[in-house]
What we know:
Elements: H1 2-18, E1 21-22, H2 24-32, H3 47-70, E2 74-78, E3 83-87, H4 100-106, H5 109-112, H6 116-135, H7 143-150, H8 158-172, H9 180-195
Antiparallel strand pairs: 1-3, 2-3
Helix pairs in contact: 1-3, 7-9, 8-9
Amino acid sequence: xxxxxxxxxxxxxxxxxxxxxxxxxxxxxxxxxxxxxxxxxxxxxxxxxxxxxxxxxxxxxxxxxxxxxxxxxxxxxxxxxxxxxxxxxxxxxxxxxxxxxxxxxxxxxxxxxxxxxxxxxxxxxxxxxxxxxxxxxxxxxxxxxxxxxxxxxxxxxxxxxxxxxxxxxxxxxxxxxxxxxxxxxxxxxxxxxxxxx
Length: 197
């Protein structure tokens, strides 16, 4: 695994040197294609492989950032929508600041210790936090609309509802071409119906 990570790190550093701004999705597309072919074509199709791909890229990006800052070469802004090479500025060292995200992504046990259930929990926490942050709490919708959106009918079964929720979340996930609005509506419908059980 260490050898594969080093190959990925070198490829990312080369790409960041050739062009100063990328999105995570653009980097993945380039790394899936020749001459790199470091990720399978279906790397983003399943939640676990999506998480692993994302984690490996961010692990390497944070390693590059640490190396560049230590060498006073450059800095790197890292988030999914913008990965940008920034000029190094004397007197500023990102290595001195506490960065919980860097700590998380530089710890490979986070990758090896996360299974499908762990990924699902991370995604659920993310969407719950996003919904709560935008709306100040969990909104509900009327029962009939929720059933229609979730494509379920009474009497409700918890196992069926949860399976349908996972299917719809997977289908409408923004990383798979879905929309944030549809994801939020699915979550709202799920929480409405789950409270009725």
